[in-house]
C-alpha cells in the first residue's frame, strides 16, 4: 500500500504580515462623492463627456459616508485612505467655504470614532475651476495657491489625520492632462507638461514644510503611480536601455525633483507592467499594447502581473523609507478574478517583506465602485458593489440604504485582515472552480 504523501512544511500556517500592518481601502473625492460642481473636471465633463460618463452623483458618498465607513469597519478594515476636494473648500479664489470645511471635519471625525488610521489625500487629480482658468499647474504661482489651501485646511483637520498624501500620482496627472491629453486640461504639449510637473514638485515641497510646521509629528508623502518595465524581446540591448530610462523617469524622477528628504514614507500605487519594444517603424521605443497579446488583462486591458509589485517594492527599498501600498486593485465585473488578484498580489508583498522590504500597509483600490475618471462607471474596482440604478431611485425616495453590496472578495479580504496575513485555507481559492462561499461559508452568511 502507498504511504501518505509528505505534508507540505507550512500547512495550516498563515503568511503573516508585520504587527501593526495597516489594512484598508482607498477612494478619491471626485470619484465617489458626487456633486463636485466647482471642479475643473465637472466643467470639462459637461462639454466633453457623454452624459453617462459624467460624475453626477457618483456613489453619493458625500451623503452616504457614514454607511460606507461602517461597512469598511464591518469588513475588518483598520485604516482608510480618502481625499478631500479642494474645489469644495475653496470654490472661488481666496474664498473658503466653512460649511464644506465643517463637512470634512464631520467625515474625518467619523473615521476616528470608528478607530481607523486615516490617510488623507489633499489633491487627487481634480482642481478648482478658478485655478484651472488661471492656467492650472502650468502657472508658476500654482504652488503658492496650493500652499494657501494647505495652510487653511490643515489646522482644521489635523487632529483626525495620521498620514498626509499631498498629491496623488503627479506623473499620471501630467500624462492624462498634457501627454495623452485625454483629461482636463487636454493640452498636448511637452513643454507645458514639464512646467506643470515642476510646479507639482514645488507644491509638494511647500506643502511638506507647511504640514510639518503645523503638526510636527505627522507623516507626509505622495502616492506615486509606479510601473514595472520589461523588454519585449529578450537580450535586446536597445530595449534594455529604454527600460532603464523609463524606470528612472517614471518611477524616480519626482523624488529627485523634490528631494527624498521631503518624503516621510513612500506611497505606491501599482497597476501597470509595461513591455518596451522597438518595432522597427520608428526610431523610438513604444509600449506594447498587452491586450493584443495572450496576457491576462483586466476589463481595462491592463496586465495582471503580481510579480511586478515585488519588483517595485524591492526597487524602492533602496530609499530606506517605510512603504505603504496606497492603491492596488482590479477593474473587473468578475469577482472571482478579484479574489485571485488580491491573493496573488498580497503573496508578492508578503515575499517582498520576507526579503527585507519595509512595507507597512495595503490600501485596496477601491472600497466602493467609483467613477473611473474619463472611462465612466463601467469599470468596477470596488470591494463593495454600487447598484447605481437603485442608488438613484433611493436618493429620490429618501430611502438611501439599498445600493451597496459587499462582493465576496471583500470577505476574503476580511479573513486576511483577521489573520493579519493569508491563512493557508484561503490559498485554495487559487484553484479553479472553488467558490468563496465554499471556503468562507459562515462569514458570508453573517
Ligand atoms: C488613480 C485612481 C484610479 C485608479 C484606477 C489610480 O491611478 O489614483 O484615481 O481610479 O488608478 O485607474
Structure, described:
The chain is α/β, with parallel strands linked by helices. The protein has one domain: TIM Barrel. It is built from 16 helices and 15 strands. The strands form four sheets. The protein has an eight-stranded parallel barrel with strand order 2-3-4-5-6-8-11-12, surrounded by four helices. A three-stranded mixed beta sheet has the order 7-9-10. The chain has a two-stranded antiparallel sheet with strand order 1-15. It is globular, with a radius of gyration of 22 Å. The chain binds beta-D-glucopyranose. The active site is at residue 327. One of its GO terms (biological process) is carbohydrate metabolic process. GO terms for molecular function: beta-glucosidase activity. Keywords: Glycosidase, Hydrolase.
What is the residue-mean pLDDT, rounded to a whole number? 94
What proportion of the residues form beta strands (DSSP E)?
15-25%
At CATH level 3, the topology is TIM Barrel
**Number of DSSP E strands:** 15
Pfam family, one: Glyco_hydro_1
InterPro entries: GH (IPR017853), GH_1_N_CS (IPR033132), Glyco_hydro_1 (IPR001360), Glyco_hydro_1_AS (IPR018120)
GO molecular function, one term: beta-glucosidase activity
Protein name: Beta-glucosidase
Based on the model shown, name its key terms:
binds beta-D-glucopyranose; 3-stranded mixed β-sheet; globular; 446 residues; alpha/beta; TIM Barrel; 8-stranded parallel β-barrel
Amino acid at each position: 500500500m502507498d504511504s501518505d504523501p509528505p505534508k507540505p512544511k507550512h500547512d495550516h500556517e498563515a503568511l503573516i504580515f508585520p504587527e501593526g500592518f495597516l489594512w484598508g481601502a482607498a477612494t478619491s473625492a471626485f470619484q465617489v462623492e458626487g456633486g463636485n460642481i466647482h471642479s475643473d473636471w465637472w466643467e470639462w465633463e459637461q462639454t466633453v463627456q457623454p452624459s453617462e460618463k459624467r460624475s453626477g452623483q457618483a456613489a453619493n458618498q458625500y451623503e452616504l459616508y457614514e454607511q460606507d465607513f461602517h461597512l469598511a469597519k464591518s469588513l475588518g478594515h483598520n485604516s482608510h485612505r480618502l481625499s478631500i476636494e479642494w474645489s469644495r473648500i475653496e470654490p472661488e479664489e481666496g474664498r473658503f467655504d466653512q460649511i464644506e470645511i465643517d463637512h470634512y471635519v464631520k467625515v474625518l471625525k467619523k473615521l476616528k470614532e470608528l478607530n481607523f488610521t486615516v490617510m488623507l489625500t489633499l489633491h487627487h487629480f481634480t482642481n478648482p475651476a478658478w485655478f484651472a482658468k488661471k492656467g492650472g499647474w502650468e502657472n508658476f504661482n500654482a504652488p503658492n495657491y496650493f500652499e494657501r489651501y494647505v495652510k487653511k485646511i490643515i489646522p482644521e483637520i489635523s487632529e483626525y489625520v495620521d498620514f498626509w498624501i499631498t498629491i496623488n500620482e503627479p506623473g499620471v496627472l501630467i500624462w492624462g492632462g498634457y501627454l495623452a491629453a485625454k483629461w482636463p486640461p487636454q493640452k498636448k504639449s511637452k513643454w507645458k507638461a514639464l512646467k506643470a510637473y515642476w510646479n507639482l514638485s514645488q507644491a509638494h515641497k511647500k506643502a511638506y514644510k507647511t504640514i510639518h510646521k503645523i503638526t510636527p509629528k505627522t507623516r507626509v508623502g505622495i502616492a506615486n503611480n509606479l510601473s514595472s518595465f520589461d523588454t519585449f524581446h529578450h537580450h535586446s540591448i536597445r530595449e534594455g536601455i529604454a527600460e532603464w530610462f523609463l524606470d528612472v523617469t517614471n518611477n524616480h524622477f519626482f523624488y529627485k525633483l523634490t528631494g527624498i528628504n521631503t518624503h516621510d514614507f513612500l506611497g505606491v500605487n501599482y497597476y501597470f507592467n509595461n513591455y518596451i519594444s522597438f518595432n522597427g517603424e520608428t526610431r523610438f521605443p513604444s509600449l506594447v499594447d498587452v491586450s493584443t497579446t495572450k496576457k491576462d488583462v483586466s476589463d481595462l486591458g491592463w496586465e495582471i502581473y503580481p510579480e511586478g509589485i515585488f519588483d517595485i517594492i524591492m526597487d524602492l527599498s533602496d530609499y530606506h523609507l517605510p512603504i505603504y501600498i496606497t492603491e492596488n486593485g482590479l477593474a473587473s465585473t468578475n469577482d472571482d478574478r478579484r479574489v485571485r488578484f488580491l491573493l496573488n498580489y498580497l503573496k508578492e508583498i508578503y515575499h517582498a517583506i520576507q526579503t527585507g522590504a519595509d512595507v507597512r500597509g495595503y490600501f485596496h483600490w477601491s472600497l466602493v465602485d467609483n467613477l473611473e475618471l474619463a472611462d465612466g462607471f463601467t469599470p468596477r474596482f470596488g470591494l463593495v458593489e454600487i447598484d447605481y440604478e437603485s442608488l438613484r431611485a433611493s436618493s429620490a425616495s429618501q430611502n438611501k440604504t439599498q445600493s451597496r453590496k459587499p462582493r465576496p472578495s471583500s470577505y476574503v479580504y476580511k479573513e486576511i485582515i483577521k489573520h493579519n496575513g493569508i491563512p493557508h485555507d484561503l490559498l485554495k481559492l487559487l484553484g479553479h472552480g472553488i467558490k468563496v462561499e465554499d471556503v468562507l461559508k459562515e462569514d458570508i452568511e453573517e
